[in-house]
Sequence to fold (104 residues):
Amino acid sequence: MHASIRRYESIDQSRKSELVKKVDETLLPKLTELPGFNGYSLIDAGDGVMTSVSFFDTAEQADESTRVSSSWVREQKLETALPTAPTITSGPLVVDKSRELVRA
Fold:
């Protein structure tokens, strides 16, 4: 399995709710339709920083998720909400243990 981590900094705090809603309603459906999709999380690290983590079967599929996410930012006109390009880290999982999370 491969992970792609995208760290976004300098997020426009006045648009954070809009961004989270659009991720949930429009980006996540696109990612879940990609071949090899295994999971996605968006983390609010505070101070204008958010990080997304995507899990796919192969490196190529993880790279495609980055391309889809980049296109999505432009389609949704979020360039001012996300003014800096994300720092991207991608690679194979070498140790992995998870269990299904149940949301309340």
